[in-house]
Amino acid sequence: MLGGWHDFYAILAMVAGTLLGAMFIVASISGRNMTKARAAAVASFVTPTVIHLSVVLIACALLVVPNLPPRTLGMIGIIGGLAGLAAATRICWRVLHAKIEHIDRVWYGAVPLLGYVGIVAAAAMILAQARFSLETLAAAFGLLIVASIRNAWDLIIFLVGQEGSAR
Q1: Torsion over CA: 37, 40, 43, 44 (sign)
Q2: Which of the four pLDDT bands, split at 50, 70 and 90, describes residue 122?
Q3: Where along the chain do its domains lie?
Q4: Distance CA 147, CA 89 (A)
Q5: Is the sign of the CA dihedral 120, 121, 125, 126 positive or negative?
Q6: Model pTM score
Q7: Which residues contact 67 (CB under 8 A, 6 or more apart)?
């Protein structure tokens, strides 16, 4: 089913895994000097980014499983996509009410939400054996990975800044 998409999804999984590792390292290093109140606020942005990266990593790993039937893949995509959509809706709601810059609301809230909408749409297309289902899935994962890269960078800059101001 994957055809020429195998390498794309394998590379995307490696990118997600690498970013996950970087997020854990930065969070553990910067967490030493953080107050409990500040840590709770930061966690509300770190955790969703880790979740989005994990979704991409796990989904891409599933996609490169040999001989996975399209129906199974579509069902996993629908269930996982709907769960992600529910979580992203909660995150989006929380981000919309946070005292942060407008651009952060877009990247932490709206872009991942669109990514999960794309995953659900792509999974439905896979089940319907529609054309461009893998392209739609690639675009959805692209939204999640680009948002995660941007948000990871934003968090790293913020956390490193906090580390520097604590001295």
Answers
A1: negative
A2: very high
A3: 3-165
A4: 15
A5: negative
A6: 0.88
A7: none
